[in-house]
Every structure is written in structure tokens, then in C-alpha cells.
Specification:
The complex is a heterotetramer, with 2 copies of chain A (402 residues) and 2 copies of chain B (148 residues).
Chain A (H helix, E strand, L loop, with lengths): L1 H5 L3 H5 L5 E2 L10 H13 L10 H20 L8 E4 L2 H13 L7 E5 L8 H10 L2 E5 L12 H4 L4 E7 L11 H11 L2 E5 L11 H4 L3 E5 L10 E5 L1 H6 L10 E5 L2 E4 L13 H15 L3 H21 L3 E3 L11 E6 L4 H9 L3 E2 L1 E3 L4 H6 L5 E5 L6 H18 L1
Parallel strand pairs in A: 1-13, 3-4, 3-5, 5-6, 6-7
Antiparallel strand pairs in A: 2-8, 7-8, 9-10, 11-12, 12-15, 14-15
Helix pairs in contact in A: 3-11, 4-11, 5-6, 13-15
Chain B lengths: L2 H5 L4 H9 L11 E7 L4 E10 L2 E10 L2 H12 L6 H15 L25 H20 L4
Antiparallel strand pairs in B: 1-2, 2-3
Classes of the chains: A alpha/beta (402), B alpha+beta (148).
The structure holds pyridoxal-5'-phosphate (2 copies).
One pyridoxal-5'-phosphate sits at the interface of chains A and C.
């Protein structure tokens, strides 16, 4: 099946050398549908959106709204106007950290976790410093999942926000969103979900996940770089102040002061990354049309093969959940005595693309007492040949480099 | 793509209706006064009305807007006398169906048909809606005042 | 000449109907070089930048740095690391407003102008409200240029920032940057230049312009939507705190606190809009290779034809400088009794793309006592046929719509 | 594109030099101690040194890093005795020329030639530079202390 899927990704046909792309957690490859939407808009249908009335501009505005609607469907939201276009997850989390903390009082608390990506840590730290808030973090268990038993002890009457990743970009661990949502509801806190690593693995239903706000990136869900989305519940969106300001997000501007447009426009200052937004809509449409039961079972099968193979490799330790229920095919491992960058370089030169480093998750590295790991991350286009290549290459790397 | 349909956007009927400007003016001591803006272009309609038992008795409007807004304001003013909430809702529904390219179930205000070409030009649809929304707002406001 | 140039823009060959694009101040059409860079990266060379070591990632990082260097050359900057990638001018001005005001004390003053785009007004207003700063504005003369004689009276011992547009997006008026730079230097204030409408008209030399910070958008200089740049002088860049935070802009992150990377990375949180950045570099390279003396004289000739034609059209008044020395080919006009959107729609249906509205410059509209204008904006691909079509179409529009 | 050249990145010489780890260790009471980090990967070298009249007398380093960093640290330690600011500058220049793909004018530290393949892998060049920068930093720090 992945061979059919592979055909939907132009990069694979374009590579003549060996190419085993196992770095989709950093960025996914673009699917043909997204590439076509991007290129079609940029080269033959370009006009700015939201204000023009000539046919090309009207069509661009319509396409922009249609992309919003496609993404809304992909994340289980009825009202497309609840989808806010951003330039990516990082921007989205900055927006949420800024806007949600605007309402907080000194001493109010924000609960993160030890496995967060820096983009879901630093914006909250900066907001906390500005407004004298307290940041706490849910610890991570030895298997890479959240220690949710600790959550009650970490919540207080002052907890206003819980912000965690749906899926760890280091270990692939999936968070138990329903328990977190419940805890947030009980505490009267908003639940912010970092969905960067969730959307590449199929449609989500935000209503079921129970979050109040959500951020994700297009480039990780097989669309172009440069666009992402934030979703927040309607009540929040209508109440919160803007973050970025400028053109398109205002109602009136005078030199004495300005008033703001309703959401989503209030949160979309300036010319949006139109091409990448249209591409993200196209990617969402295409992804929504796939058979995710089949894709998931294939991802699990390959993940199992990889986990088994790694465990059988000398000097190699896998981080993260051993089971397949609470994880995605994002696998970090440590080869004792071999530096991740040497490993990535060595395998990279053999056509195997892996990522080595702290994966923008230094607190999690500290938790595991590692400076860095090597990560293989799977997506719907990976197949057995990729796993074989990695496992074989790893054998020789350990022999040579250790 | 939308070229053909909107070529006929400025049909004679729309232009004449805009120039007719029915109801343009002010009321000396209105029961309610509302203002609606179109943020796209800064167009604005200021509508004053006298009420009568939950119905509109008289309206007058000052419309700074494009031909579409002015034509819609003129049609709206023509039908304002005796209009109640149900009436404006029915007209808005007819308009929305027209603008979605569908055939309206009921032709409550037949003149609205002149806006059929606007169905293909999404960016201008709010221009047509604005005057009807002003009427709707005026009626809502009237409901909250204790007018005769 | 513009017919040769036109060939470098894929949209013109793709349109079978009449197509006179006169809305380049809203967004320029993409040039083939930028489109190729965008598509090449997104579909056949995609990897995330800055951290990967496998060949595809190394190549992407190199291309990203090369794009930085191309843009640096286009704006006359020696050190490419002074170029910060953003998602556009609006984002860039938000960054500058946030970071530059972080150092200010209550009562400090910011001087803008009456002709600014909302993106160069609202971020300063928001920063001013947060930090109790005072915002003043240089008035605009009847001809659309800045009333620089008023500047001395507007400066005070508390003026810390002067932020103005290089070129008005409404009237095409060019600001006298050397006088403003001088005033800023004398006042000890930083000079921020909004260069959104400057870069499409040829390379600039920021050192000669005398500004301390600069923001611009790729999509207006014939590149993709979704990327832009900020430049600041080195001293500022090294001193200022970050704006957005998250991945790639940190040195170290722990749950106790974080430290930041040096510029440019400090200001580039998260995965950048890589494709659009590479496209912007390619556009800068291509633009730098053109004969700008010839292009400028052609733009002036067309601008003169258009100004003359508009003056000769019944009921039509042109805003902005009458001469050609202090303006670009961005021409706003008012047709008495005809609404700009009716005009734009009518002409749009005849293949002529114009923009009607307040052009995100409501204070300037107020200055001229207008709700909106119609704007024709020229770029290097426009020709006599575009001017003819507009002037002819305008005649019939006035006849029919007035 | 960079595939061919970097295929030979892990030549026997680099691996052996890394494993040799010349100068690995600590000094009991160093005159100066410096720490250099590579933000790309969190690699770190901690270098301790004794000085003598503006020259290095003895160095020891603890290097947590990749083979490239470890090999460069080993070479650096081998040449540290009697090194002064001019000497480390010359070595850094030789390295930078190598890494730019040029033929260095002077071969101050011949062993640096093993890093020639790194010229085609920009993202790894800082790994090689790190130990030399640590030496340079130690010398600068030494200049500011009043050591014997
Ligand atoms: C869990 C998680 N959050 C946030 C981000 C940041 O996404 P972006 O770099 O697209 O802004 C990433 C990207 O690696 C991620 O994996
Ligand atoms: C003078 C000026 N400044 C700022 C902007 C904002 O640019 P962007 O929408 O690309 O962020 C524009 C765009 O119209 C402009 O013309």
C-alpha cells in the first residue's frame, strides 16, 4: 500500500540515488495535492486575499476560505471560521501563550510537561516572566509517557492553563488527552494541545479530544512550509485580544486608536502565507480521503519491526513506549559510544535520513540523562525497504564508529 | 472563472434601483437609529425608524456605499413599512438563497432578484446584505424600546 | 522591454483571457526564478534546516543561508547574518515594535506618519499601550508627501523611535529618508523603515538610506507568499530580546529557564517558511541582475501616461505627488460619484485588476477626507496595453456607473 | 550532491585520532578553565590549562562530542604545549581554509588535513572548530590572568 501512497509524493520519483526518508517528524514530504495547490496559486492564480473584488482576487479569497473549511473538517470542527491561519505551530503556540496569559493574574499557574517541544515551553516561560506566573511540568515516566498520576498534585486553585503535546516528537508517546481534559475541566483550566505531531497520522476530532485550543503545522502534514493553524473554541476566540497586529485584522484604525475585527481575522494580521494555506487545505482534503485504518496498521507493523530490530542491535537502547497502543512511529534510540551526529552522518551518506540531537526537547533529554538521541520517524510513505536499510546501516555504523 | 456571470453584475436594474434611492433621508425624532458598517470597504448605512407595535412604521436611511449597497437599501426601504421580525427574516433568507445561487423558496421581495449575478462574486455579497441587516437590527432595537 | 520581462512571470502566459494586472502593490506576481526555487525545494529537496546532518538537510541549510546572502546583497548589507527571515512585513514590524519598545520607559515617544500602512501603526499602538508610550505622527501634505518641516516640532528629548514607510502603498509617495535619518540621528532615535513597497522597485542600499531597522515582504518583490525579512543593525540585533520563541532560537532550555541563540536565529523561532525564503533569495538574485535604469525610466513613462490620462478623465482626481521624482507607479484616484468597489468590479470583469478600498491606510484616507480610493499599481511587467485598457475601461465605467 | 565526498568522512584517520583522545583528562589546579558548547548538538568541551608567559604549558580536556570534535580535540591537545595566540590563529586559519575547500597556505598542524572531507558538509564544520576555539579562548583568558 505504501508503494501506491509513495507515488503521491513527488520527491520519491525525483530521487535517483538511494533515499530512505525517516525524518518526517522534522518535516514531512509534500504530497502532490498540496504541491499542485501551492504551485497553481503562486504561478497562475495569484492575488491577495480578503479585500480584492476582481475575479482573480475573489477566487483567491474563496480558495482561502475553502482551505479553512477543509482543515476544519480534518480536525473535526464544524465552523470553519474557528480555524485561524498561522505561519506554523511555533507561531500558533506563541499566539496562544500571549493571548491566553493576557487574562491571568500574578501567581496564576501554567502546567506543561517534561516532554514538550521547546515551542511549547519557551513562549509560556516568557509570558510567565512578564506576568509573574508560575510554570510547572508533569513528569515523564521511564517509558516516555506522562506521569498522569502526578497531575492532581500539580494542579492548584490557581492553575489556569494546561498545555501539552498530543504526541511527543522524540519518543512518539501519545498523551492521554481525555484524562488531561478531565483534569483541566475539573480545575477550571484551559487545555491547550500541541498537535504538531498528531495531524500527520490522520484526521483528529478536537471535540472528542476535549481541548480548548490547538496548534499545528502544515509542513508536518505533507503540505508546504510556512503555514499552520490554531484552533480555539469560539468563546475564547471572541474574547481574547489579538497577538500580531496590522493589516486585515482591524475594524478601524485611527492615529488615536484602533478596533479589531472578529475572529479569525483578528488573529491573522498581514498578508497570510496564502500559497501554503491553500496547500494545507489540499493536503487535508487528500489525507481525509485515505484509508487510515490500513495506514495505521501498516505504521504499527513497521514500528514493531523497527523496535524489534533496534532491540536486537548491539549497544542500542530505545526510548519511549515499548507497546504500540500509546505511540506513533517516532522512535528515538541511543547507541552506546556512538554520537548521534556521527550515526546520522554515516547513514545519511548511505541515503538514510535520520535526525540526531536534542530534537528541541532538552528537558526530556535531561530527564533521560542524554545529550542527544538518534531519531527515526515514520510516515505513511515508509515501507519495509526503509526499515531494512536503517537496520543494516546501523549494524555497519556500530561496527565502524564505535 | 467568475468572469461571465459578473459581467452582467451591473445590470440596468441595479443601477436604476441605486439611483432611485427610495427612503434616502432622515427622520426628525426616530424611535431607533442604527448604523451598520462593511469593514471590507468602510461603507456605512445609518438607518432611522419609527415603530408601531413591533412593526416598522417608517424608515429613512443615509447610505454611503457602492451601487449594490445603495440598490439593496432602496429595495429595503420600499418594503419597510409594516415590516416585522418575521418579515425581515424571510427577506434575508430569500437573499441568502439567491446569493448562494439557489432558487429561493419564497419570493418575499421580488426586486431582490436583480442581485442574482452577485451569487458568483462572494466578496461583494456583504454589500447587498448590509441594508437588510440594518433593518433587522432596527427591528431588534425597536423590540427593546417602549415605542407606541 | 516589459514584454521580455513579462516572459519571466508564469502567470501571464497562463492567462488566456484579457489580463491587465495593476494590483502589484497588494501582491506582485511571482517570477519564474522564485517559482522554480519554491517548487524545487518543496517537491524534490525538502528537509528541515538548521539542525539536520544528512546530505538533503545539509543542502537545505546551505540553500537557506545562500538565500539570506542573496537578500543581504539586494539590500546592500555585507553580513548576511544581519538578515532575519520572517513571515512578512507585518510580522517584521511586530517584531521590531515589540523588541525595540522593550527598552523604553513610560513617556518615551514614537514618531510615525499619517501615511503609514496599518501594519506600521497598530503594532506601535499596542506596544505604546502596554508600556505607556506616546505615539505621534508626521502630517501628510496635500500632495501626499510627508510634511517634514513639521518634524522638528514633533521630536522631543523623549523621542526614541521614528518609523515610516519608504514608499506609500496608497499614493506611491517616496519618503525623504535622508532627512528623516538625519532627524533621527540628531534626536538619538532609532529609524525604522517599512520597506514593503520599496523592494519591488529595485535594489536598495540600506546603509545609504540611513535606517537602523528595515522590514519587507517577499510576495511584493515577486517571490512567494509567506516570507519576508527584517534587517537591524548588528548592535541592536545582539542587544534586543527575542520576540517569538520556541525551537531553533534557543541556546539552552530547561524547565527553570532558557537562554537564547545569537542573531539571526534568536529572531527565527520554529521551522521557517523555508520554501518561501529560498524563493525570496532567488527573486533577489534575479532582480539584482536586471537593468534598473531602464526599468525605472519605463515605469516613469507609464506612470506619466497614466497620470495624464486620469487627469483627462471626467470627474477623476488623482491623489499623491504630481511629479515623478518623489513617487513610484502606485496611483490612487477618486472618481466623483463612483464607488471604488463598483469601479474595481466593473473593470475587473473586463480583465483589469485594480484595488479599491482604504488600502490598510485609514489615517491617510481621513487626511484626504475619503472613505476609499481606487488604486492602480505598476510593476516591471506592466506595459502600454495595461494603461490603455485601464483608461478606456475607466471611460465606460464612468459613463455607466455614475 | 554532497554524498560522494562525505562518504569518506569517517576515514580511518579521523576515527583513530578520536580514539587516541590525546590530552583527555583534567588538571588539578589549572590556571584557566574554559567551556565551549556546540548549540547544534549540545556537544561540549571543557578545557583546563596551565600557562607560561602567554604560552600554554599544559592542557587537559574533557570532550563530550562526536568523532569530529573528539579527533580535533586530540590534535589540538597534541599541539598545545608552547602554543601562543599567533599559533592558534594560524591553526584556525589553516582549518578554515581546509573547510572552505581551499589548499591552506601553511600546514601548521599537518594532522588537520584529515578533516578535508568535512569541507563538503557545512553542518558539521563547527564540530571540528570547537576544540580549536576552546584553545583560543583559553589563551585569551590566560592573557588576562597573572600566571607565572
Ligand atoms: C511537538 C512539536 N511541537 C511544536 C513543533 C514546532 O513546529 P514548527 O517548527 O513547525 O513551528 C514541533 C516541530 O518539530 C513539534 O514536533
Ligand atoms: C507600506 C506597507 N507596509 C506594510 C505592508 C504589510 O505587508 P504584508 O501584508 O506583506 O505583511 C504593506 C502591504 O500592503 C505595505 O504596503
Amino acid at each position: 500500500m505504501s508503494s501506491t501512497l509513495k507515488k503521491a509524493f513527488p520527491i520519491f520519483a525525483s530521487r535517483t540515488e538511494r533515499f530512505h526518508y525517516l525524518d518526517s517528524a522534522a518535516t514531512g514530504q509534500i504530497c502532490a495535492a498540496a504541491a499542485a495547490a501551492l504551485l497553481g496559486y503562486e504561478t497562475t492564480a495569484r492575488a491577495n486575499v480578503k479585500r480584492g473584488v476582481y475575479p482573480l482576487a475573489d477566487a483567491a479569497s474563496n480558495a482561502f476560505d475553502a482551505a479553512r473549511a477543509s482543515i476544519a473538517r480534518y480536525i473535526g470542527i464544524d465552523d470553519a471560521n474557528e480555524v485561524i491561519f498561522t505561519s506554523g505551530t511555533t507561531m500558533g503556540l506563541n499566539l496562544l501563550a500571549h493571548c491566553l496569559t493576557a487574562e491571568l493574574a500574578p501567581g496564576d499557574e501554567i502546567l506543561l510537561s517534561e516532554l514538550e517541544h521547546h515551542s511549547n515551553i519557551v513562549p509560556w516561560q516568557i509570558a510567565a516572566a512578564r506576568r509573574s506566573l508560575i510554570v510547572r511540568a508533569i513528569p515523564v515516566k521511564k517509558d516516555g509517557t506522562l506521569e498522569l498520576a502526578a497531575i492532581e498534585g500539580l494542579l492548584s486553585a490557581r492553575t489556569r492553563i494546561i498545555a501539552v503535546a498530543h504526541t511527543s516528537n522524540v519518543t512518539g508517546a501519545i498523551s492521554d488527552t481525555s484524562r488531561i481534559a478531565e483534569a483541566a475541566r475539573a480545575a477550571g483550566a484551559y487545555f491547550v494541545l500541541d498537535g504538531a505531531q498528531a495531524l500527520p497520522h490522520g484526521p483528529v476530532d478536537l471535540k472528542r479530544l476535549g481541548c480548548d485550543a490547538f496548534a499545528a503545522s502544515g509542513h508536518k502534514m505533507f503540505s508546504a512550509t510556512g503555514a499552520g493553524i490554531v484552533w480555539m473554541n469560539k468563546e475564547l476566540a471572541h474574547r481574547l485580544p489579538p497577538f500580531l497586529s496590522g493589516g486585515e485584522m482591524i475594524r478601524t484604525v485611527s492615529l488615536k486608536g484602533s478596533t479589531y475585527a472578529p475572529p479569525p481575522h483578528r488573529f491573522e494580521a498581514g498578508t497570510p502565507p496564502i500559497g501554503a494555506c491553500l496547500a494545507m487545505g489540499a493536503a487535508a482534503e487528500w489525507l481525509a480521503s485515505l484509508d487510515w485504518t490500513a495506514i495505521e496498521s501498516e505504521e504499527r507493523r513497521l514500528t514493531r519491526r523497527l523496535l524489534d530490530g533496534l532491540s536486537a542491535t548491539a549497544h542500542t537502547t530505545v526510548l519511549g513506549p515499548a507497546g504500540f497502543c500509546h505511540r506513533r512511529g517516532i522512535i528515538s534510540f541511543d547507541v552506546d559510544g556512538v554520537h548521534p551526529h556521527d550515526l546520522c552522518q554515516f547513514l545519511g551518506d548511505r541515503g538514510i535520513a535520520l535526525r540526531g540531537g536534542h530534537h528541541c526537547a532538552q528537558p526530556l533529554m535531561e530527564r533521560f540523562n542524554l545529550a542527544a538521541t538518534t531519531r527515526a520517524s515514520l510516515a505513511l510513505y515508509n515501507d519495509d525497504a526503509d526499515i531494512d536499510a536503517l537496520l543494516e546501516g546501523l549494524e555497519s555504523a556500530v561496527r565502524l564508529l564505535r | 472563472m467568475t468572469g461571465m456571470a459578473s459581467n452582467s453584475l451591473y445590470n440596468q436594474a441595479i443601477i436604476e434601483e441605486a439611483k432611485a434611492a427610495v427612503g434616502s433621508g432622515t427622520i426628525e425624532t426616530p424611535h431607533v437609529s442604527v448604523r451598520c458598517d462593511n469593514p471590507l470597504c468602510g461603507d456605512r448605512i445609518t438607518l432611522e425608524a419609527l415603530g408601531n407595535n413591533g412593526h416598522l412604521a417608517e424608515v429613512a436611511h443615509r447610505t454611503r456605499g457602492c451601487l449594490l449597497t445603495r440598490a439593496a437599501a432602496s429595495i429595503a426601504a420600499r418594503h419597510a413599512r409594516n415590516l416585522d421580525t418575521a418579515g425581515i427574516e424571510a427577506a434575508l433568507q430569500q437573499l441568502d438563497e439567491l446569493l448562494s445561487g439557489n432558487k429561493p423558496l419564497k419570493e418575499v421581495w421580488p426586486e431582490l432578484a436583480i442581485f442574482r449575478p452577485v451569487a458568483s462574486v462572494r466578496s461583494r455579497q456583504d454589500c447587498v446584505r448590509l441594508p437588510l441587516q440594518a433593518l433587522s437590527l432596527a427591528l431588534a432595537k425597536l423590540g427593546k424600546t417602549s415605542n407606541p
